[in-house]
Amino acid sequence: MSESTIQAVQDRLNRKEISCVQLVQEKIDALHSSTKNANNAILTESALKKAAEFDEKIANGEKLSGLEGIPFGVKDVYLLKGTISTASSNILKNYKSPYTATSIQKLIDAGAIPVAKENCDQFGHGSTNENSVFGATKNAHDNNKVAGGSSGGSAVNVATENTIFSIGGDTGGS
Prior knowledge:
Blueprint: H1 5-14, H2 20-33, E1 39-42, H3 44-59, E2 71-75, H4 102-109, E3 113-118, H5 152-159, E4 165-167
Parallel strand pairs: 2-3, 2-4
Antiparallel strand pairs: 1-3
Helix pairs in contact: 2-3
């Protein structure tokens, strides 16, 4: 059985082959330069702050475990406290989340670092990721095809390796 991507990345962090800040900055740079319209917001400041905390832990001789130090994306229908959570809709364009969804909080509690709020069909209703106030998410490999599913931003970020993993959802059977 081969090692998971998450474990391989974390092993690199623990061996100090790359710092967590470097890893997160690489992902943020990739998210910013992406032409796939997969992101509604990039969480630069909070992600780099958390990455620095994990680098300090490693510098103190501790090892990361679980999901510690792993950058991930969050479909914009999931709330993340203090961020604008639009559900890719115009009606929520200025909605600042007062709390974090339980599923996302559990990942954060395990040490994962949210780096992006990802484009999706409005309120997660759709099957092509073309029904977003921010415009369609482009397919990771062919701009002439749809990203697919209501969680297209999440899928594209993983397929293009702009996040290590992403959280999407299956609202209507997509």
